[in-house]
Specification:
InterPro entries: KH_dom, KH_dom_type_1_sf, KH_domain_protein_archaea, KH_PNO1_2nd. This protein is of the alpha+beta class. 58% of the residues lie in helices and 19% in strands. Strands 1-3-2 form a three-stranded antiparallel β-sheet, with helices on one face.
């Protein structure tokens, strides 16, 4: 049996501690907080490591600033968490990180809101990290939109990308639904 470890920022510890009991019930795991290392140890009760990985994803999402309702969506097989570390992509310069975060957020939160509305994902910008929670396919579209902004593309270019991606997604879903209907007939 493998124990998984996850840490979160100090200011998010209490938020995670509040949901431990519920998370243990839903994932069939035992979660122990180690005060010395400030680490959550996630231990699967059965042989299913997958449930332990889901528990780690929920804790990580809360650590990235997502609310518990959004984080618990990760228990569904249809949802995933994607993390973009700005330090890895653009370096440690605080001014550069602040500028890129501003581009992703947009004036009065407009850009972040548009990406969320087009894709149906939740985005959290916390420290030097951008987290995305949502359905797998939509998370990848939102991630690409954010990467375009990080690369310095104009906002209207990103909005056009989102518009095109939405149209293609609707065509894909419609064709998939058509195949299912034909299989039923």
């Amino acid at each position: 049996m493998t124990t998984l470890f996850i840490t979160v920022e100090d200011e998010r510890l209490e938020e995670v501690k509040r949901i431990i009991e519920k998370l243990e019930e839903l994932t069939d795991t035992k979660i122990v907080f180690d005060d010395k290392t400030k680490t959550f140890n996630v231990i699967p009760k059965g042989q299913n490591q997958y449930e332990a990985l889901k528990a780690v994803s929920v804790i990580r999402a809360i650590g990235l600033g997502f609310d518990t309702e959004t984080a618990f969506k990760l228990l569904s097989d249809e949802y995933s968490l994607e993390v973009i570390d700005l330090k890895t992509l653009i370096g440690n310069n605080p001014d550069s990180i602040r500028r890129v975060k501003g581009r992703v957020i947009g004036e009065s939160g407009k850009t972040k809101k548009i990406i969320q509305e087009y894709t149906g994902v939740n985005i959290s910008i916390y420290g030097h990290v951008i987290g995305i929670v949502g359905p797998h396919e939509q998370v990848q579209i939102a991630k690409k939109a954010i990467e375009l902004l990080i690369e310095g593309k104009e906002h209207r270019t990103v909005y056009k990308f989102l518009d095109k991606a939405e149209r293609e997604f609707i065509v894909y879903k419609t064709s998939k639904l058509g195949k299912r209907l034909n299989e039923i007939r």
